[in-house]
TrEMBL record, chain B:
GO biological process: protein repair
Cofactor: FMN; heme b
Keywords: Cell membrane, Electron transport, Flavoprotein, FMN, Heme, Iron, Membrane, Metal-binding, Transmembrane, Transmembrane helix, Transport
Cofactor mode of binding and number, as noted: Binds 1 FMN per subunit. Binds 1 heme b (iron(II)-protoporphyrin IX) group per subunit.
Protein name per its UniProtKB record: Protein-methionine-sulfoxide reductase heme-binding subunit MsrQ
Similarity section: Belongs to the MsrQ family.
Task performed by this protein: Part of the MsrPQ system that repairs oxidized periplasmic proteins containing methionine sulfoxide residues (Met-O), using respiratory chain electrons. Thus protects these proteins from oxidative-stress damage caused by reactive species of oxygen and chlorine generated by the host defense mechanisms. MsrPQ is essential for the maintenance of envelope integrity under bleach stress, rescuing a wide series of structurally unrelated periplasmic proteins from methionine oxidation.
Amino acid sequence: AVALTGKPSSFSTDEKPNSLEEITNYNNFYEFGTGKEDPVRYAAAMTTDPWSVQIDGLAERPGSYGVEDLAPDNALEERIYRLRCVEAWSMVIPWIGVPLSSVLNKAGVQSSAKYVAFETLNRPEEMRGQSYPILDWPYREGLRLDEAMHPLAILATGLYSDPLPNQNGAPIRLVVPWKYGFKSIKSIVRITLTDKQPVCTWQKMQASEYGFYANVNPEVDHPRWSQATERRIGGGLFGGRQETLKFNGYGEQVASLYAGMDLAKNY
Amino acid sequence: MKRRFNDLLRRLPVWAVWLAGLLPLALLIFDTFAGNLGIDPVRDIEWRLGKTAFYFLIGGLAVTPLLRITGISLMKFRRAIGLLCFTYAVLHVSSWISMEMGFLWSQMAKDVVKRPYLIFGMLSLLILIPLAVTSNNLSIRRMGGQSWRNLHKLVYLAGPLVALHWIWALKVFPVTPGFWLLVILLLLGARLAIRRPLGRGRAKGLKITN
């Protein structure tokens, strides 16, 4: 595939990104199995071309959009973001993509829309994990409209200078860096503008452990483990742990979205 | 057949079991230095040590049912199997303290009493410590056979706890530890259901109890 380039962005962190090998060989993508190595092993079976994204619901111009319509080459930006997994590990990833707001504006947001729902491809014959009832397929996630329109939220189509590898959610995925990784839904086939809070797969499965917001928050523990600290992948055997930052360090940009909300209740 | 097998086992020295039992550790050390571990070597080291400890624990629990059902005796090796389990369990916890938690004592202290998977894991370790410490002839003599046996029955509790430790550490219900939990419960059930070796004359058994 052709190399991708994205314009540098002031939203990028200057922390050292993880290597392409680390980012593409250690993934949670349960559609291909629950092991961290399952996605790299099995994701090649997924057909990503042709691909279209259905945008529907409260959109002015609903319809089927191609990846290149949503993320044209000349609009691509490089966004080097921290990624914090709910399992208390983290990485730094140089994504290439476009602001989610640009995509939503392309489809036109009706004034009654309050939320955005996303859906991953459901194709068990190419995604072997979907043959097992590990999760309620297809994988679904959602954002409040103001979260979705925030300039930090992007749809990524590339990684380093490569088109997005399948195991990382090809051909197009969400990246919301201030939320736990599972919110950043992969291999999106459907985006729905809606006035109701969307169903999210993990929240539906275990609401006591996974909330709708899922903002990175060291003060609110996951019931099974503490969220106070994290281990950076690639830190070596004795790299130790670092403190987890509220909103994954993006508080300055996003904290105002949650003004007045009790984040211990709305976790 | 059974006799020939037991003769063979009788001639196998205990140190051979120790040697074989330490092979997974040697392999892990080799893989670590050869760079054969995955993207997150810390997790791989921690998991491999933990799984090996767990499998030795199940092995130890299988010795008596195996003897009663098939007549094959691994009794001579049971202490080595138990101590190997303890060795791997200590290494597993050490890797958690040093590599996973980076010696963050305050967080560890808070987590150990709060997180179910850590409570299950630490309880199993606490159980294994006195068992390991008394795994020598002197202790058996000092304690007396009956109270030593009673103490070592605590391992029946450690088995299921370790399985729960593994199950609770993951986000979705994992098949492998679920399977081993079932195996452990079957092994414990076999102890209750089959009180004495199968295939021995009933009359003889009765004579003994009378």
